[in-house]
Every structure is written in structure tokens, then in C-alpha cells.
Design a protein that fits this description.
Elements (H helix, E strand, L loop, with lengths): L2 E6 L7 H8 L3 H6 E7 L1 H11 L4 E5 L11 E6 L15 H19 L5 E3 L5 H6 L7 H9 L7 E4 L2 E4 L7 H6 L3 H17 L6 E2 L17 H15 L3 E2 L1
Parallel strand pairs: 1-2, 1-5, 2-4, 3-4, 8-9
Antiparallel strand pairs: 6-7
Length: 242
């Protein structure tokens, strides 16, 4: 049975609406899932015109009303913005507010069991913060509204998966976050996530911070004092990390 994917439209002033329309022109998408866009129908209709897509925009009030067939883009229309409300390519609080509310809505749908998974298009952090939502990105929004205390971002491509000790922070702060407990938490997160993805015995490679992993303290002591102890603690828990 095809699962319903809730897809946020992203910042209305950005590339999200156009990416969405172009992606949903491929009939193969509909063979594997039921894509439901969460956003504004009027903005998606403009995106169709911009990219020259020949498709029908079908507005729904509930995921159960979707048609989920090629040639039709189903959208849970939140009715927040019209094309004349903002300028494409310009940072605005209005667009940031809408983009944030799309994410909130798709999380709500997932928590209520109305969609089976979520996909997010780009949002603009500056616009979102101008609108009064002080989050660094999607990861932090999801963590906050799902009540998740320990979390990280995972990037995945084929057989490679990367989990971050830090995400959207300055380089200086990223270095300061390299502490044993945080590194150990991220090793655990990576291990459990890989297990959930069907990898029975994940092998975790832990990156160093300094050039040449510090060369035994010549270029910094984070590897000696924080990273290696975290790896050793993970090994005691039965996690294959090195």
C-alpha cells in the first residue's frame, strides 16, 4: 500500500514551490507514494506557470481527500499567502511565517497519524526569524514540536550516512560543542538510526576535529580528551565505533 508523504512547500519566495512542482511531474513518484503538498494553492499554481508544468492543483482540507494520481498535485491549502503578498527572491517576514506554519502543520499531521512521513523543502532562516520563530532550522523545529530531547541531523546517500555533532551554528561554537557526552550521544543516535533502517550491525566511523586528528596533541587535544573517550564508552555499550 502506498504511504502518504506530507511535503512542505518551503519558503514561498524561494525555490521550494518550483522544486515541488517539477518533482511531482514524474509519474514514478506516484507509484511509490501518495504525495501531499502542505502550503498555499495560489503559490503552487504560480510555480506551475513559472516552470511550464501542465498539471492540475487539487486543494484538500484533509489528506484523505487526495486523489494521488499523476497529472494532479494534491495540496492541503492553508490559505496563508497570495502571489501579490510578497516578492519572489526577497526575504520577508510574511514568507517566513508561512514557511514555518507549513512545517508546524506537517508535523501535526504526522503526529496525528494522517500522513506516514514528512518531506521538507527549503526555508529561509532569516525570514523565519523575522517572523518571530527563533529556530536554527528544520531539525530544531521537529525536535521542539515532537518533544525530542536528544537529536541530530542525518544526511544519507546510498550506503553513506553522516550524523552531525553540531548543525546550524558558527564554526567557533561547533568546535566548542565537541564534548565527550555530545559525541557519545551522536554515536548512539547514529547506531540506533542505522538499526531502524535495517542495518543489523552498523559500523560507526567517528571523524576527528583537528588536522590529522590532532596528531596526538600536536594540533589540539579534542581527540584525546573528548572524542576518543566517547568512542571507548560506545564500545563498552557494544557499539562498533572507531
Amino acid at each position: 500500500m502506498r504511504k502518504i508523504l506530507g511535503i512542505t512547500m518551503g519558503d514561498p519566495a524561494g525555490v521550494g514551490p518550483e522544486i515541488t512542482v517539477k518533482a511531482l511531474q514524474d509519474p514514478k513518484v506516484y507509484e511509490s507514494c501518495k504525495p501531499l503538498v502542505v502550503g498555499d494553492a495560489a503559490i503552487l499554481e504560480r510555480a506551475c506557470r513559472i516552470v511550464g508544468a501542465d498539471c492540475r492543483i487539487h486543494s484538500v482540507a484533509d489528506p484523505g481527500e487526495g486523489l494521488y494520481e499523476p497529472g494532479t498535485i494534491d495540496i492541503l491549502d492553508m490559505g496563508l499567502l497570495k502571489p501579490e503578498d510578497f516578492a519572489i527572491g526577497q526575504v520577508s517576514a510574511a514568507a517566513g511565517d508561512a514557511a514555518f506554519r507549513y512545517v508546524r502543520k506537517v508535523i501535526e499531521l504526522a503526529m496525528d497519524g494522517k500522513v506516514d512521513a514528512t518531506v521538507t523543502n527549503p526555508l529561509n532562516k532569516e525570514a523565519m526569524n523575522l517572523a518571530g520563530y527563533h529556530f536554527n532550522g528544520h531539525t530544531e523545529i521537529y525536535a521542539h514540536y515532537t518533544g525530542t530531547k536528544t537529536y541530530s541531523m542525518m544526511l544519507a546517500h546510498e550506503n553513506l550516512r553522516v550524523v552531525h555533532v553540531s548543525t546550524h551554528v558558527s564554526l567557533r561554537e561547533a568546535c566548542e560543542r565537541v564534548k565527550k557526552e555530545r559525541v557519545l550521544d551522536v554515536i548512539r543516535i547514529a547506531y540506533q538510526a542505522c538499526r531502524q533502517l535495517g542495518i543489523r550491525k552498523p559500523k560507526i566511523g567517528v571523524a576527528g576535529l583537528n588536522p590529522h586528528a590532532g596528531e596526538n596533541g600536536i594540533f589540539g587535544r579534542e581527540e584525546i580528551e573528548e572524542i576518543t573517550p566517547a568512542i571507548e564508552a560506545a564500545a563498552l555499550e557494544g557499539i562498533w565505533a572507531e
